[in-house]
Specification:
By secondary structure, this protein is an alpha/beta fold. It contains 14 helices and eleven strands. It has a nine-stranded mixed β-sheet with strand order 1-9-8-7-6-4-5-3-2, with helices on both faces. It is globular, with a radius of gyration of 20 Å. The N terminus is likely disordered.
């Protein structure tokens, strides 16, 4: 008991005190006291590896910007399936397929993987495609990318968007569709950022509690506790250098659309009205505070009829209040230096309260960065961690 207490306190001290540039050379740490956490501690191979990002990528801002701009993903294609949900909304699901068959033997015992991306991502986003490709090459034959309402050439038939509101969480109807399309198969949920919030929201719901097909979830870069921690400014010189290009990219994705979501800007304009649209467009995006304004005020304007105020919106998109009500095992992975999805020491104290929660911390990685190599090609290490955790979760469920 004393050894366990001392170990836990030591881990929390390291998490709270160690500077990210020094933690870069340490192993990831796991928090959680339930059976899923114990199983992963015992069996994970990636947990025993040191992840050494290039020195420049110890900057959270640079890592995100560099990976988004320079990581490429070839050899994977998508086959579109439109799914209509109960309220008339339309979802664009893409079954991801390798252009060259995988050498890994396929197995019907593998679950169908549903990938829920960040709010700014679609099937065309490299970060999503690399994760799907890693799943496919690891023997998960059926991987489905879930595009949200109004995104990735999906017609918007309803007044509301999926992003960024949990009220229109479409995980449940997607699960029901997959249950019919793949009868008898188990389902695994995976994702990052906003998609991670949707997964936690669903796993904590009564709908999931009564759904036998879903075995659990694995996700990273979750917006865990925006209420207590806030979207904090990373105080590092390298971050400030790349705030503007990162912020401009965020603004362009939301307002002006991107490949696969060309009409999104028009839909935003129709939803919020010209005055609010002009407010968002007028943001200078020269400092990180403008990014915060965009996400916490600009996006909240999309749903004035739902949220009372900005704090109500922030409270809703945080997932920390789901601890204690998770109905399936879930593995969440975050970086200690993530400036847009922070996790505080107070949060760590609560991780033991839910036996279904396993929380990983990396010293660095930033927000959806986790850059492994910069040259000759940009690669990441988070995909292999997510896929390994998915396999461990599958093994855990089989042995229960």
């Amino acid at each position: 008991m004393l050894l366990k207490l001392g170990t836990g306190i030591g881990a929390k001290i390291r998490f709270s005190k160690a500077h990210p540039i020094f933690k870069k050379w340490t192993y990831p740490e796991i928090f959680g006291s339930g059976p899923i956490s114990n199983h992963i501690r015992k069996n994970s191979m990636t947990l025993r590896q040191m992840y050494r990002s290039p020195l420049l990528c110890t900057s959270s801002g640079f890592a995100f910007w560099f990976r988004t701009k320079y990581e490429k993903c070839a050899g994977i294609d998508a086959k579109r399936i439109f799914v209509e949900v109960e309220d008339g909304g339309l979802l664009g699901l893409d079954k991801m397929v390798l252009e060259s068959p995988s050498n890994t033997p396929s197995s019907e015992e593998k679950p169908v993987v549903l990938v829920f991306p960040g709010g700014n991502e679609t099937t065309y986003s490299t970060k999503v495609r690399t994760l799907c490709k890693h799943f496919l090459r690891s023997g998960f034959d059926d991987v489905i990318m879930c595009n949200y309402r109004g995104k990735c050439n999906t017609p918007l038939r309803t007044p509301q968007f999926t992003f960024p509101f949990h009220q229109f969480n479409d995980v449940a109807p997607i699960v029901r569709h997959v249950e019919k399309a793949y009868p008898g198969r188990k389902i695994l949920l995976a994702g990052d950022c906003f998609g991670a919030n949707l997964i936690v929201d669903y796993i904590a719901s009564d709908v999931c509690k009564n759904t036998d097909s879903v075995i659990g979830g694995v996700a990273h870069s979750i917006q865990w506790n925006s209420v207590l921690s806030g979207m904090k400014l990373a105080k590092e010189p390298m971050f400030s250098l790349f705030v503007k290009p990162w912020a401009k990219m965020t603004k362009d994705i939301l307002i002006h659309g991107k490949r696969g979501s060309e009409n999104f800007g028009k839909m935003v304009l129709e939803k919020i009205g010209k005055d609010n649209y002009d407010v968002i467009q007028s943001l200078s995006m020269e400092s990180y505070s403008d990014v915060v304004t965009l996400h916490r005020q600009g996006l909240a304007k999309l749903c004035d009829d739902i949220f009372v105020d900005e704090e109500d919106y922030v409270r809703e998109v945080s997932s920390h209040n789901k601890v204690g009500s998770l109905n399936r095992p879930i593995v969440l992975i975050n970086a200690a230096d993530d400036p847009t999805a922070p996790v505080s020491l107070e949060d760590v104290d609560n991780f033991d309260k839910d036996p279904n929660l396993c929380f990983w911390f990396f010293g660095t990685g930033g927000h959806c960065g986790y850059v492994k190599t910069m040259f000759p090609t940009c690669t990441n290490y988070i995909d292999e961690v997510v896929v390994e955790c998915a396999q461990l979760l599958l093994d855990f469920q089989k042995n229960r």
